[in-house]
Amino acid sequence: MTDDMLRALAKNNGVAQVNFFSGFVDEDYRKATAALAKDRDAAVEAFVAQHKAEGKTVTYVEYDRIDESGPPGFPEPPFKSPD
Known about the structure:
By secondary structure, the chain is mainly α. It has helices at 3-11, 27-35, 37-53, 60-69. The protein has one domain (3-69). It is built from four helices and no strands. The chain is flat and about 55 Å long.
């Protein structure tokens, strides 16, 4: 988007959406994440169950970390944000 476009959006109370799911720009990544979805979901469920068994709650940060890292072999997104 150009500066003019962003200014026009702001002037008209518009919204600009940014999607950070790499599967929208890389088909191979989308296929790989879909193939590993069951394993990723199982890893998240095991993590949550372990915490519940220990009487601990799972914070969003912990949940997100395990969800994003996924199981072994989970691919890295083709784009990375600057640190």
